[in-house]
Amino acid sequence: MSDRDVIEAAYADLSLLSEAAQAVTRTMALLDGGHIRVAEKRAGTWEVNEWVKEAILLYFRITELHTMTAGEFEYHDKIPTKTGLHESGIRVVPPGTVRYGAYCEPGVVVMPGYINIGAYVGAGTMVDTWATVGSCAQVGRNVHLSGGVGIGGVLEPPNARPVIIEDDAFIGSRSIITEGAIVEEGAVLGANTTITATTPIIDVTGKDPVDYRGRVPARSVVVPGTRPRSFPAGTVQLQCAYIIGQRSGTTNDRTSLNEALRTFEVTI
Fold first, then answer.
1. What is the helix (H) or strand (E) element at residue 226, kind and residue range?
2. Which of 32, 217, 222, 246 has its CB surrounded by the most CB atoms within 10 Å?
3. What are the average pLDDT values for consecutive 10-residue runs of the chain, which has 268 residues?
4. Distance in angstroms (rounded) separating the CA atoms of residues 81 and 115
5. Is residue 113 within 8 Å of residue 93, measured between CB atoms?
């Protein structure tokens, strides 16, 4: 049987867990090294590798709490922090943390933020101060996660899609993306924008508004907002997000980002 078969069998029947321990350990090593991923884009569609998420969940069961130290810092946890940062070509600024089982491509910079198990972060991406990349989140290349950004973790159930931030996206300070939402390539989110699976994302650039859910279209410029909704007790303003423009088609993504921020007066 393949490691995948063993893991799927043990996840369905925990009495097989001890027999699956080596398969789980090997799978976690592959995940940590970036050789497999929790989710991958195939033929333009993001697909979840459920068995890899199952391996992560089983890994928590076969590991035990132990004390770890990093200089004067002490931790007590089941999962160690990532090692071999220099060899991997990534920069982690103290007390930034990348957990074992997460993978960062060369050129990633992690300020004092956090990248959780199962996450994948592409080359050239900046995880700024106090930004969090949750479990299994998939972050593309040349992405900027500004200070305090929260990329939610989606570990259970195994078939649930993780949060996905595609290449060249810019996520403004204190923004939150959760519940398997997708921010497509080149999109720009202004500060404090919240995107969940059910958040109304309203394109107001045309004659009539167009609503999206759980997906920010590619190269969209998005800001937080509210819209009215009536209840028996009265009308209240509920949170939403507005698409107010598009990044230009220039081949220089830095130039197009600066143009978008200036043209649409987006706070980041």
1. strand 220-231
2. 222
3. 96 96 98 97 96 98 91 88 93 95 98 97 97 98 97 95 97 97 97 97 96 97 96 96 87 63 70
4. 10
5. no
